[in-house]
Each structure stands twice: as structure tokens, then as C-alpha cells.
Design brief:
- This protein is α+β, with helices and mostly antiparallel strands and about 210 residues long.
- It contains five helices and eight strands; from the N terminus they run E-E-H-E-E-E-E-E-E-H-H-H-H.
- It folds into two domains: about 120 residues, no CATH class; about 50 residues, no CATH class.
- A six-stranded mixed sheet has the order 2-1-3-6-8-7, covered by helices on one side. The chain has a two-stranded antiparallel sheet with strand order 4-5.
- Helix 2 packs antiparallel against helix 3.
- About 20% of the residues are buried.
Length: about 210
């Protein structure tokens, strides 16, 4: 039944969460050039329907994770349908964030609910049973493998990344460049001189 009621759209809608909350793993955050929805959040399995957070949820994300969206890759959050979200004086429903990874503790902040009212909103720390390997860690591992194949392989790997991923990868940029150079131009093996070999008496030879 859940698949039969999915709304047609180019983004995640509150109606997509009628069947229950969904925990997503972020793969990319980018600008849309739209004044009403300037930010899009791509995630694993999004079917090209990113989450476009409203201003209140963008404030929550910044308060929790900071302004560097490159750091968001691989992080997780739980989204749910809040039917009480107001727009134009009417309850239209909307997507809210209930849990976020990479928090030391639950986060509470004041959000504007109407033009004259602000109310506390709490996001809980997302705790999972088993540790996850983040997309960031996967990307670093893949980059190191590419660097081990040489300069051209590393360049091709970087060419396939989006700007936020490239910014994150810069953290180990020097390490990757050195590894790629070493793979492309390996140091010549040192030959052992016969003169340096220890002498062996004739009667000791077999």
C-alpha cells in the first residue's frame, strides 16, 4: 500500500512520510537557486527526490552540524510528517527532523511558529545499534585506492566528484598526491653489488 500512495514530485513531500518516519543518509547538499527552497539534500535511495528543508529545519541543521555542508555527507537524520505545520494561516503539514547523528546530546532551540510566537523544538541524538561506515569514510578509502594506481587514476576519481565531496577530500589531499606520485614514479630498486657480498671459502660451497 505504501508504494501506491507515493505522490508524484521532484522532491520529498510530507505525504511521502504518511506511512511513518524515515531515517536517511546524506550524500550531497547543494543550492537550488530557488528563493523559497534554496537548499536540497540528496540521500541514499532518494530516487532523485531530494529533501528540501524549510527555513526552520535549515536552522536546526546549522545549529546541530554547522555551516560546512561538506561535513554533512554520510551523516544521518530521521524525518517525519508533522501535520501541524502551518503555512498561510492553515495547517498544511510538513517535514520535520526528529533525530540527527553526530550530536553529543539532544538539541533544543526556539523556532518561529507564527509571526509573533516562538516555541521550543527538540531534536534527539540518533543512536544506532551498530557503527556505520560513513560515505565520507568510503570516499576516503576509494580515493586512497585510486591514488595507489597513479596520478591519472586519482585525477579521474576527483573528476567524478561533486564540489562538496571535493572540499571534504581536500582534508587528505597532500597524502593522496604523494601516494599517486609514488605510484606513477616508483623509486628505482637498489641493486646489490657483488663486491659487497660476503666472501665464501671454496671449501664451504656446496
Amino acid at each position: 500500500m505504501a508504494a501506491s500512495i507515493i505522490p508524484k514530485s521532484d522532491q520529498m513531500n510530507a505525504d511521502d512520510l504518511i506511512s511513518g518516519p524515515r531515517t536517511i543518509t546524506i550524500t550531497r547538499v547543494y543550492g537550488t537557486n530557488a528563493s523559497d527552497q534554496p537548499v536540497a539534500v540528496s540521500f541514499e535511495g532518494d530516487n532523485k527526490k531530494p529533501y528540501k528543508p524549510g527555513k526552520s529545519m535549515r536552522r536546526v541543521m546549522v545549529a546541530a552540524w554547522g555551516v560546512d555542508v561538506a561535513q554533512y555527507v554520510g551523516r544521518r537524520m530521521t524525518l517525519y510528517n508533522d501535520p501541524g505545520v502551518m503555512f498561510g494561516g492553515m495547517q498544511v503539514g510538513g517535514i520535520r527532523i526528529s533525530h540527527m547523528s553526530d550530536l553529543e546530546r539532544d538539541l533544543t532551540l526556539l523556532l518561529t511558529t507564527t509571526k509573533s510566537k516562538r516555541s521550543p523544538f527538540t531534536v534527539k541524538r540518533l543512536v544506532e545499534d551498530a557503527p556505520r561506515i560513513s560515505n565520507r569514510e568510503r570516499m576516503f578509502t576509494a580515493a586512497r585506492v585510486a591514488a595507489g594506481k597513479g596520478v591519472e587514476a586519482l585525477a579521474a576519481f576527483r573528476a567524478g566528484l561533486q564540489p562538496p565531496a571535493l572540499e571534504a577530500l581536500a582534508e587528505i589531499g597532500d597524502e593522496l598526491d604523494k601516494a599517486a606520485q609514488a605510484a606513477t614514479n616508483p623509486a628505482p630498486a637498489q641493486e646489490t653489488s657483488k663486491a659487497s657480498e660476503p666472501a665464501v671459502d671454496d671449501d664451504m660451497r656446496i
